[in-house]
Amino acid sequence: MSPASTFIWIPAAAGMTTYQLFLIVMTVSLIAPDVWRITTPLGSRPNSVHAYLAHDSSGRWMLVDGGADTDAAWEALDAGVREAAGGWQAISAQVITHMHLDHAGLAYRVADASGAHLAMGRLDAIRMVHAHENAAEEAEYRRSLLHRCAAPTELIEWAGRLPPASPVLPLSIDCLLADRTDYVPGIDDWVTISTPGHTAGHISAYRHSDRLLIAGDAVLPTITPTIGVNRQREDPIADYLQALGVLEVLRLTTVLPGHGDPITAPAARVAELIRETRAEGERLIALLGPEPLSTWRIVQARYRGRELPRPQQMQAVRETLAHLQHLAAAGAVRSTTTPDAVRFWHV
Ligand SMILES: [Zn+2]
Ligand SMILES: [Zn+2]
After folding, report:
1. Residue-level pLDDT at 9
2. Distance between Cα 291 and ligand 2 center (Å)
């Protein structure tokens, strides 16, 4: 279903200001049977993120994701939930696909407004709490990772000064979803399935009756989700390829992504993501030769001629290292690792 053909239902329009009507028309739409999409703004690209509000056959509502922790995003989400579900008291469960701030940033406001149980993937929940409670140790992890990759000193120092990448806490996480298929307490029709890679504990919501998936950032329509090294999983690229393999088997009819339009040919898109993930590995192998190279040297070769801002440099290191470690584990490239350096080569 394309946004242009989306049915907009506004029963409560009487008495609203033009601005309130504008906000609702811009942000909330019935995107699939019993599933509403609420779009909230982001301060930077990709400019917006979608939350999804699903109505189950027992009359209960599940909210999947929220938005970034800004007043503008909250206003849009609040208007959307009031319009689609009639108010926050109708929400029985809040599910967060993954810990990134554009998806989880409003979780505490949703919890306050609704009192609904909050469920998220086990590993992301653990990671989020750890990041919040151990900011200094997190900064040291980032510094040592970049140091091992031989990144420039200014990038290492910048990364050490970053604020914790976790939503406002204390946030009561009521249910840790398993790293497999799991149930959302109090919600019928839907299960969650583990879709790691983008984060270690990423989950998606799945409705078997029409094989519909609310995918967060696991499957996006036009960009390949970022996959980076993390401390919870040894091989996030393998995790992602395995998750995509599971999605292939499910023969999905539609994927509702966290960013962008619904994916109405999911099999083709999932196959494309598998190809693209493998092709990225092939491109990295082509950059290697018999001389061992640091990750930073390989990042420079990978992005030759492009000036990356620091956040993208950091992401490029994490992503390049994830691919290289995956290739090394598969025997496709050679590597040496010491506490101080990791290098890769290809013979
Ligand atoms: Zn994300
Ligand atoms: Zn996202």
Report:
1. 41
2. 37
Q: How far is the CA of 73 from the centre of ligand 2 (A)?
A: 14
Give the confidence band of 22 by pLDDT, cuts at 50, 70, 90.
low
14 CA to centre of ligand 1 in angstroms: 37
Residues surrounding ion ligand 1 at CB below 5 Å: 100, 217
Per-residue confidence (pLDDT) for residue 339, from 0 to 100: 79
How many Å is the Cα radius of gyration of the chain? 21
- CA–centroid distance, 317 to ligand 1, in Å, is 17
User: How far is 65 from 87, CA to CA, in rounded Å?
Assistant: 17
Q: Which ligand is nearest to the CA of 258?
A: 2
For the ranges 64-68, 173-177, 206-210, 256-260, the lowest mean pLDDT is seen at: 173-177
Q: pTM of this prediction?
A: 0.90
Per-residue pLDDT tens digits for 275-285: 999 999 999 99
Ligand closest to the CA atom of residue 257:
2
For 213, half-sphere exposure in the C-beta direction (CA atoms, 13 angstrom radius) is 32
